[in-house]
């Protein structure tokens, strides 16, 4: 099975930690980056080009809905 590269975005550090630990149990999933807001998520998408972006909807600064729209340009192959 191919590796799945994942970006986790959530403003709560405990949620990010829990999600990272949970998905890391699957050998085919690699968490390539974490972000705490939409701005960081877009930067991480540009840098790491993850296959999948797990995005919180409500975050300070830029929420997940706006960041998802903008991220389509930063990482057109990310889902």
CATH class membership: Alpha Beta
How many distinct domains? Answer: 1
CATH architecture: 3-Layer(aba) Sandwich
Query: CATH homologous superfamily - what is it?
Result: Response regulator
Structural class based on helices, strands and sheet pairing: alpha/beta
* Strand runs, count: 3
Q: Nutshell version of this structure?
A:
This protein is α/β, with parallel strands linked by helices and 79 residues long. It has three helices and three strands.
Structural features, described:
- The protein is an alpha/beta fold.
- It has a single domain (4-74), classed as 3-Layer(aba) Sandwich (Rossmann fold), CATH 3.40.50.2300.
- It has helices spanning 13-23, 38-48, 64-74; strands at 4-9, 29-35, 52-55.
- Strands 2-1-3 form a 3-stranded parallel β-sheet, with helices on both faces.
- The radius of gyration is 12 Å and the shape is flat.
- The two termini are 18 Å apart.
- The relative contact order is 0.24.
């Amino acid at each position: 099975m191919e590796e799945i590269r994942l970006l986790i975005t959530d403003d709560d550090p405990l949620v990010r930690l829990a999600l990272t630990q949970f998905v890391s149990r699957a050998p085919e999933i690699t968490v390539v980056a974490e972000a705490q807001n939409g701005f960081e998520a877009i930067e991480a998408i540009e840098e790491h080009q993850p296959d999948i972006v797990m995005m919180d909807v409500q975050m300070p600064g830029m929420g997940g809905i706006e960041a998802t729209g903008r991220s389509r340009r930063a990482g057109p192959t990310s889902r």
